[in-house]
Every structure is written in structure tokens, then in C-alpha cells.
Amino acid sequence: MSTRQQDIKPTRLLHDAARLLTSGVMAQAVALLVYPLLTRLYTTGQFGLFNIFLSLGGILVLFATLQYEYSIVLPREERQARWCLHAGVASTLVVVVCCIAMLPFRRSIALLLGAGGLEDYLWMLPVYVCGMALWQLTRYWLLRHRRVDLLSTNQVSQAVISAGGKVAGGYGGLAGGLIAASTAAPLLAWAITLLRTPAALLRTLLRLEHRGTRAAACRYRNFPFFTLPKALLESLSSNLPLLLMAPLFGLDAVGFVGMAMTLAMRPINIVGSSLNQVFYQRAATEVQQHRPVWGLCQRYLLWAFAVAVPVFVALYVWLPAICAWLLGDQWRESGEYIRVMLPWLLLVLMNHPVNFLPDLFGRQRGLFVFTAVRITLQAAALGLGFVLRSPHQTLLLYALAAAVVLVAQLLWFRHLALLHDRTL
Question: Is residue 14 part of a domain?
Fold first, then answer.
């Protein structure tokens, strides 16, 4: 490879990362700007129902794609990448049909979760799952073709549609406005993205080859067999407090904790996902061309630690006051919840952009073990917190259990990357 080509690739990587980060920040800004209004239009109980709905939907989206979206960027041949996408679409259709079949039991599901009133909105769940799953698959297809412009547009348009719908629903007195807007936004933003996608690129997606799709599903079976269970445990790790707190502490507590998780996790996930998508594609190319990958990861980790620690220290001091000013005095408690989550949040920020390493090296089983250990410790922490009958102590124990395992996971990521680099 020429020196010129070597110079271009890092520049392209930084450009793509900067563009995705910029659109992510813009999307987050839109969401945050409407929260002071939303917290005055909806009650904490309505936010509680909203958080439980999103928790259920997030888990079902993982089943829908079976994590095949991560396989789309891996094949050298274009048709094999298309087969991977079609495998994800097929599994999405199956899960959506199953969601529809569960609708007659929506009252029992709501009672089981201690969320009276949720039954009125569960009919939206299949629509939400379909929209989110289709976008997940499309996102990695566009990433493979380096259409960062379309990815950026979707991030912003989805945030604008969701925010506008929530505000309109609140002013219109629609109790389920939060849920309805979050259901419609992914599908509408996905449709807008498809309209802007070149026709030639879309035509390739319509070439259905059932035998090839089955072959791709079999070849990349590690994703549903190992990456999916890991992702499910990750999702439970984030959503378990919300799903379990309603019966024990009530919907208001779920509203406060859910708001804390939203304000804390959303910016971290946007930044982490944007970096992950770009680093994943770059690292996959490095591995295919037999080049080292640890240097790429190490630079990010050092940069993230140096920038995040001072910011997190400042946040610890000001969080309750910020939440009270931003959302209203009644939401100060959400700032207290975010405080106890800060060590966990820092380690999530450092892990997320490099958590593709086990996928690159076929070590999904090891990552699954780490995730299983983490959620086991977190479940034990939740149990102890419930015995103490304190939502704050429950969340503190939960966050500390996650932080301990994430430190060990980072060390394992380093081991995997160095092991690969030494074989070159």
C-alpha cells in the first residue's frame, strides 16, 4: 500500500467519526432541549410507563435482528453482505408476528410488570420493534458503503420527529404521547433515509436469494448464538431496575430512575455507538489486511479517560442542581440517581467503542461469560438493595457491580488485541 493511501485512511476515519459524532450531538441536543418542556407536560408516572415500554421494546428488537447487523460489514463479497441483511430481516418478521400474537395477553403482561395502564399502549410494540430492527439492519448496510451522510441524517431526523411528537402529544393531552412518538419516529426516519438512498444501492437489497440467506445465517451463527445472548444480558443489565422497581417502589420511582438513565446513558450511547461503528469498520479492515489493531484502541481509551474524568468530577458536584434547573424541582432526585451511576457510566464510555474486538476474533463466547457474570452480580446487588428497601442504595450497588466487571472486561479486550498483534 502506498504512503498516500495510508495517509488517506486515517483522515477518512476521523472525518467519518467526526460527522457521526456531530450528528449524534445534534440529536442529543434536540432531545435535551425538549425535556424541560416534557417534564412539565407529563407526570412521573407517565414517564414510568414510557420507560417500561422502551425496556420491553429494546429487548424484543435484539431478538428481531438476532444481531446479524454486525455481520454485514464483515464479508468481502457484496452479495454475502446482502444475505446477512436478509437474514436479519427474516428474523425481524418472525418476531413482529410473535408480538402481534401476544396482544390478547397485554393485560396480564401489564399486571405482571406492576404497570397498570400499560396495556393500552402495548399494541404499539410490534410497530416499534419493526421500525427499530429495520433501521439497525439498514444502518450497518449503509456503514459498509460508507454512507455516513445518510446515517447522520437519520440520527437527526429521528430525534426531531420523536421530540416534536412528544411535545405535540403533551399539549394535546395525549397520555401516551411519549410512547406514540417513540414508536413512529424510527419508522418515519427510516423511510426518509430510504428515499435519500441511491436507487442502485436499494436495488441490490431486493435481490432475494433464499439459499444464500440461509448460508449466511449459518456462517455467521456466532452472532445469534453468542452475541445475542450477550446483548440480551446487556439489555437486562440496563433495564432490569426499571422492570423490577415498579412492583416494589411504584411508577414514580421508575420515572425518576428512568429519567436518570435517559439523561446519563443517551449521550454516552450516542457517542459510543458512533465511534463503535467507525472503529469497527476500520478494525475489520486492519484484521483482513493483517495489520495491528491495539494501537487504534489504545489511542481512543487514553483520550476518553483524559477527557471524561474531569467532566465526570464536575458533574458529580452539579448534577442535582442541573436536573432541578433543567427539568423542574421535582426532578432533583434524578440528579442524585445519576451521581451514584457515574463510575459505571465512565467504564461504559470506555468499553462501548471497542467492544467489537471479540466479534473480530471469534471470541463471542468469552464476552458472553463476562456479561453473564456482570448481570449475575447486578441481580444480586438488586436483591440486596430491595432488602434494604431503598431505591438509591439499590441503584448504587447495581452500578458498582457493573463497574467491577467492566474493568476486568477492558483488560481482556487488551489481551485479545495484543494476542492478534503478536501473530503478525
Answer: no
Using alpha carbons, list the distances in angstroms from residue 124 to 44, 100, 101, 112, 192: 21, 9, 13, 18, 21
Asked if residue 250 is part of any domain, the answer here is: yes
CA–CA–CA angle 401, 402, 406 (5° rounding): 125
Residue 191, phi then psi, degrees to nearest 5: -65, -40
pLDDT computed for residue 121 by the predictor: 92
Amino acid at 235: S
Q: Same domain, yes or no, for 345 and 201?
A: no
**Distance between CA atoms of 116 and 50, rounded to whole angstroms?**
12
If you ran DSSP here, which 8-state letter would residue 204 be given? H
By the 8 A CB rule, do 300 and 354 touch? yes
Of the candidates 101, 105, 98, the one whose C-alpha atom is nearest the C-alpha of residue 133 is 98
156-160-163-166 Cα dihedral, nearest 10 degrees: -130
* More reliable by pLDDT, 122 or 271: 122
| 281, three cell numbers | 469498520
In-domain check, residue 274: yes
Residue 33 CA to chain centroid, in angstroms?
21
Q: Based on the domain organization, do 394 and 308 belong to the same domain? A: yes
What is the total count of domains within the chain?
2
Nearest to 64 by CA among 155, 123, 125: 125
Gyration radius of the chain's alpha carbons: 21
pTM score of the predicted model: 0.75
pLDDT at 411: 93
Q: Which domain holds residue 237?
A: 224-424
- Label residue 7 by pLDDT band (50, 70, 90): very low
Contact 128, 183 (CB under 8 A): yes
Residue position matching grid coordinates 463466547: 365
193, HSE (Cβ side, Cα atoms, 13 Å): 28
What's the confidence (pLDDT) of residue 277?
Answer: 67
**Tens digits of per-residue pLDDT, 178-215?**
999 999 998 898 888 888 777 777 777 777 777 788 88
Region 230-235: mean pLDDT is 79
Instruction: Give the mean model confidence (pLDDT) for residues 26-46.
Output: 85
